[in-house]
Amino acid sequence: MINKGEHVLLRANGREYFTVAGEGKLHTDLGIVDLGAIEGKSWGDTVQSHNANEFTIIKPRAPDLFRHLKRTGAPMMPKDIGTIIAYTGLCPTDTVLDAGTGSGILAAYLGTIAGKVISYEANETFATNARKNMERAGIGNVEVRHGDIVEAAKTLDADGPFDVITLDMQEAAKVVPDAFRLLRASRRQYTRPPGAGHGNPFCSGKRGLRGVHDCHRQRAGARGRQARHPAVYEGRAYRFHHDCTEIVEAVKFF
Q: Is 112 helix (H, G, I), strand (E, B) or coil?
């Protein structure tokens, strides 16, 4: 049963509207919907607009949030988010540290799975928008903080240890030593430096991370072909040919 305040998707005639069940009305080009009429219904039921157009009530999922949350820049794409979730083995008992919040798209995906997510954003406008996005999506376990993670990571021990750390930011390399300290043993850290390449500090041959295990670089070509290359640092990197995105994974074994 759908309760007052729950976030819903209303879908009709190829259109969809992200809204909240409860008081008020939703004005659409297919008519006016009484949001109070959604309360008490079940997912998959329908509700009619004032001019008898039927809307199916859909429970929002993470991909719906990607389409409907307000963006302040280019978010991480679902295919890359999927890679992170798949290779970290993210689960409901995990505590996640995320940095480079942006619009909060990655944090929202992580929040639908993990027990708790703390996300840092250096731009105050972006952080404010990300908080509103979490409220709009009804995700209460994501805490968006305005601050510089490079400095904040030095004093985050009380919030940790963390099971997964994601760094989607230009200066990710500066955070790695502290982030590595904050990781729970046998847990994972992912970084996605924008435009990463051989000039990135992660790719310097003599900058291995003590205690990091399992190294390789994997590249997917335009047709999905994969080829392995020798590791150049103690960690794991995945480069996607079509957008030059690179994800670096460090697995802590202590």
A: coil
Does residue 199 share a domain with residue 75?
A: yes
Q: State the Cα–Cα distance between residues 188 and 97, nearest whole angstrom.
A: 11
Number of domains into which the chain is organized: 2
Give the residue from 197, 240, 235, 188 showing the smallest Cα distance to 216.
Answer: 235
CA 62 to CA 69: how far, in whole Å?
10
In contact, 75 and 129? CB cutoff 8 Å: no
CATH classification at residue 178: 3.40.50.150
pLDDT, tens digit, for every residue of 134-186?
A: 988 888 999 999 999 999 999 999 998 898 888 888 888 788 888 878 888 75
Structure token pair of residue 228: 């392995």
Check whether residue 156 and residue 91 sit in a common domain: yes
Structural domain range at position 182 = 64-252
Q: 46 with 152, same domain? A: no
CATH (domain of 42): 3.10.330.20
Quick one: CA dihedral 160, 162, 166, 171, positive or negative?
Answer: positive
pLDDT value at residue 214: 36
Question: Which residues, 6 or more positions from 117, have their beta carbon under 8 angstroms from its beta carbon?
Answer: 95, 96, 97, 98, 107, 110, 111, 141, 142, 143
- Give pLDDT, residue 241: 28
| Among candidate residues 155, 145, 190, 154, the one with its CA nearest the CA of residue 172 | 190
Would the pTM count as exceeding 0.85?
Answer: no
Does a structural domain hold residue 31? yes
At 180-216, the pLDDT tens digits run: 788 887 555 555 544 444 334 333 222 333 333 333 3
Residue 235 CB coordination number (10 Å) = 26
